[in-house]
Amino acid sequence: MADDGKHVTEVTRGAIAAMAASLPTHDQQDFDDARRGFVGRSGQRRVTAADGRVVWDLDAYEFLRGADAPETANPSLWRQGQLLIEDGLFEVVPGIYQLRGYDLSVMSVVEGDTGVIVIDPLISAETAAAAFALYTEHRGQRPVKAMIYTHSHIDHFGGVKGIISEEQVAAGEVEVIAPEGFLANAIAENVFAGTAMTRRAGYMYGAALERGPAGQIGAGLGQTTSTGTVGLIAPTIDITETGQRLTIDGVEIEFQVTPGTEAPAEMNFYFPRHRALCTAENTSHTLHNILTIRGAVVRDAHAWAHYLTETIELWGDQLDVVFASHHWPTWGRERAVEFLAMQRDLYLYLHDQTLRMLNQGYTGAEIAEVLPMPPALEAQWHTHGYYGSVSHNIKAIYQRYMGWYDAHPANLWPHPPEAAAVRYVDAMGGRDGALAVARRAWDDGDYRWCAEVGKHLVFADENDHEARDLLADAFEQLGFGAENGTWRNAFLAGATELRSGSFGTPVGAGSGLSGALTVAQVFDSVAVRIDGPRAWDEHIEIGWRISDEHTTYLTELRNGALHHRTVADVADGVTTFTLTRVALVGVVTGSLDLAAAMGAGTVTVDGDPAVLGRLVALVAPVDPDFAIVTP
C-alpha cells in the first residue's frame, strides 16, 4: 500500500520495476545543471490573487524532495518532478538569469545597458510579478525595455501584465517582440477553441488534482499550470525572417524563425555578447508533443527536426550555453550541440519511421505499439516521454499525413460513443456480462482492456456506480505506471471525476485575451459560436465603422454562417455602428453596456440597433465543464 492508502497491484508494481531496470540511473548531470547558478529562493512561498486565492504554491511539491519514488509513481517521472522543484533565481551566464519553478514555464531576464529584456512572462500576472520580484530583490530595480514572446502558447505570454502595462507599450517605453503570426495563432488556440482546450487541459496538467505520491506529481514539462489572471499585450515588433537582428538596450539579438515546430509561430534566438542560445520550446529535457493531448494543430515533426539542424549550423560553433522556456540550461559547446542534435534526431526518427511503417500499411495505433527507439536515444534522460510520448506522437504524425481514418471501412462510419456503448454491452451479455468481462481483465492485470470495457459500461449507464468504480480503479493503475506526466494526470483526473464528479475547468479559457483581439478576430470569435441550425433562415447585415482604425466592416449572416469583410462604405438601409475597436470588444464580450454606451456617445448607430440583438440571440453558449469520462 502507498503512504496515502492507494492500492498498487502486483501487475503495476512489476511493470514499474521492469521499466526502471532500463533507466540510465548512473547519469546525474541533470541535478547538477538544475542547481547550477543558484542565486536565491523567495521567502514568500505562496502566490495569491487579488481575491486571496492561492494561484501558485512553491512548496506544493516538497514531498518529492530527497524521497525515493513510491510504488504509486513511475521512478523516471518522479525523478523529473524532483528536478522541476528546484525553484528560484538562477544565473545562466553573467547578464542572463532565469526564474524557475514559478509556473509551468520558465521566465528569463537579460540585462542590458540600462534595463532588462524579459523572455516569456509565464501564464498568470500574479506568478510573473512574484518571479520578477525575486529577480529585483537580488539584482535591483531595472526598467523593462522589451518583452519577448518566444511563441504563441499561453504559458509564454499570459502573465505579461504582471510585469508591464499596455500604457508603457503605447508610450513606447517597452517593445513587445514576437514571431510573425503570433497574435493570430495565440487567438486561434486560446479563444476560438479555448473552451474545449482548457477543459481538456484540466486533465492534461492535473491542476485540480491533489498533490502527493498517489496524486499529481508534475506534468513533465513543468509542475502544472498556475490559476491566476491571464492577459495579452499585442506585439509591436514582428520577427519575420531568419537572420533578422535587433539591438535592444545595447543587447544584440539574432533570430531564427521556426514556424510549425512546437508552435505555429515560434522562434529561436542567439545573444552574441553572452554566447547564449535560447531555443524557446523547440528543445526541452523531455520528448515534446507532436500533438498535445489537450488538443492543438498537429505539429510538423519533419520541419521541427530540420529547423534544429539549421540552429546548429547557425550557432553551433559559437555558443557556450543553450537555455529554453522550460527546464534548466545545458552548458559547454560540445554538450550543448550534442543536446540539440539528440533532440533533432528524436523528432526526425519518429517522423521518418512512422512514414516508413504507414507506407507498409500499418496504422498509427499499430506503429505506436511496435516501433522501437534507438538505444542511443533511450540512454538520454531528455529524450524520455515525460510530456509528449512516443505513443501519442506516432499517432499524431500518422494523423498529419493520413487523417483520422485508418482506411478500414468498418471505421468509416462507426456509431458515436453512447450508441456504441449500448451495443457493446449488449454483445457482452448485458450489463452483468460486460462487468464480468471488465473484472476478469482487472484480475488479469489487463488494465487497458478493463478501461475499454468499463468505458462502454459507463457510457451505457452513467449511474452504474460499480462500473464507475472499476473504471476509476483501472485508470488509477494506468496512471501509477505512466512515465508520461500528462498521461498520469489524465488517468488520475478521469478516476477523480468518476468518483467525485466534475472538477470543471481550473483555468479560465481565454477571457483575459479579448482586449488584444483584432477587429477581424472579434468577428471570427462570434462566428464560431453562431448556432447554425437556428440561424438557417436569418439574413442579418450590420455595418461597423471602427473610428480609431478608420476602417469599415460589413458582417453578414446568411445560411447559418457569419462572414465579414472590409468595405468602402455601407449600403443604404444597413444598420451601422460607429465605435472604437476596444468598444467593439466590450460590446461583443458583454463588458460594455450598449444602451449606456449609446447614451454616452461612446457608440453611435445609424439605423435600428435592435438588429444587433437579433444577431446576439443566435450566439450559442459554451460549456467549460462538459463531460469527458461520462456521456
The proportion of residues forming helix, as a percent range, comes to: 25-40%
Q: N-to-C terminal Cα separation, in Å? A: 32 Å
Q: What global shape is seen?
A: globular
Count of individual beta strands: 21
Strand order of the largest sheet: 1-4-5-6-7-8-9-10
Helical stretch count?
A: 22
Rounded mean pLDDT score:
95
Major beta-sheet overview: 8 strands, mixed
Rg of Cα set: 26 Å
How much strand content do the residues show? 15-25%
| Structural class assignment | alpha+beta
* pLDDT < 50 runs, ≥5 residues: none
Keywords:
single chain, about 625 residues, alpha+beta, eight-stranded mixed beta sheet, 22 helices, 21 strands, about 15% strand, globular
How would you characterize the overall build of this protein?
With 631 residues, the chain is of the alpha+beta class. Helices cover 39% and strands 15% of the residues. The chain has 22 helices and 21 strands. An 8-stranded mixed sheet has the order 1-4-5-6-7-8-9-10, with helices on one face. A hairpin with a 2-residue loop joins β11 and β12. The longest helix is centred in the middle third of the chain and has 26 residues, at 333-358.
